[in-house]
Fold each of these.
Amino acid sequence: MQNVFNYEKVGQKGRIEQFVLLSTSPRRRDLLAFLNPALSSVEVDERALEEHFMEVFKEDDFLTRAAKVCCEITKAKSDMELEADTLYISADTMVISDGKIFNKPVDLQEARQMLYSYFGKSHDVVTAVCLRMQGYLEVFYTVARIEFAPFYPELEQVVEDYLTIKQPLDKAGAYGFQELDPRLIKSVTGDIHTIIGLPVAEVSERIFKTDQ
């Protein structure tokens, strides 16, 4: 299974003196702590962008279509005035299951439906990343596949505890991977940090490697 896909690249990185993470996600902040980034964010209408680009990419298979949409949303999050010698990092994560995009649930009932729908099968998680600075743009996405265990009665309380104790409403697909009870997870293919919200190894390599 291929896990890393290039989407767009323009220009070359210049000297980087500062990093800015364009995200309000505490998970991404923790994952990029080694960069000590400044924090900012750009408000975008993600659902409007999703609707528009799902139509633009309608000829692609559903996973590729959703991944490209994720890339466009990520790019939009970095559409701002750029300071010199500053690398801006934005990201977006989508959960794709049963030929649908599972966004953040609107309420606990929808979160419950999402979680129960995962049992006994696999679904995909896409994280798109945009690295941007003056004269440089690079967008790529990574894909991971997560297989849930088949449902059995003891797991009902596991799900209900998660819904009660954690905060599923602010997470795509109604879960944060690092918070899930290990009894729910059968296997993972790909970088688990794609599922958490940022493929850190790939991001670091693209920032610090020397362009050929």
Note: The radius of gyration is 17 Å.
Amino acid sequence: MARLLSLVLIILALTCLVSGKIIHPRSIGWEGRIVGGSNAKAGQFPYQVSLRSSFGSHFCGGSIYTQRWIVTAAHCIYGSTTNNVRVAVGTIYTNQGTIYASSKLIYHGNYNPNTLANDIGLVQTSTSIVLSNVVQPIALGSNVVGGNVAAVASGWGNTVTGGGAPSILQYINLKTITNQECKNLHSMTGNAANVNDNVICTYMPSGKGMCNGDSGGPLVANNVLIGTVSWGIPCAKGYPDAFARVSSHRTWIINNAK
């Protein structure tokens, strides 16, 4: 039975790769892993959070916006309840950190779970997050970021394609590309129509990039949050990775994180 299940999973994964279509971040073939990244040091990304289930399992990333609010991806909390979402801060390990219960989950009213349009969400903690040298909020980006901007993404996951998933936080340095460049490259995958003005893309050669980073996790440039990990083609195959553009959703975040 185990051998048969493994064969089925391999066939499904190969089907996803051949089709070139967006794979939902919570389904087979898109494991939420950074490929070709480096180990983070303690306190290097003080805004990074780990969203965990009520059983303590990490399932998505996020960023501290204020002492009560976390910015993440809509697909991370869509269909969930506060009973099964916890927020872990102040750690680079998925089995450590200070844990806060959640009191409210909000995802964008125009979020589309099929295309992942407007893939932005918020988690409110039940009590205020205690700030320290390893726990700090990050400002929201307000300017529209174009191409060729240096950025960094962080999350928990693979350091090599096909490798195991280490518990230590990973990060990778990236470059943004213009949306037109992103559309052109995704014309080969059939996902060009999903690259809209509310999306920002990064591009790395095959073997490095997101698979898809850590869903909901931060993309940061010049010390501000410019994107949250949304979708891509598994896994580090040389196609752009897509993030929800924070500047497009900045007003929505501010109005709802109250």
Note: The mean pLDDT is 84.
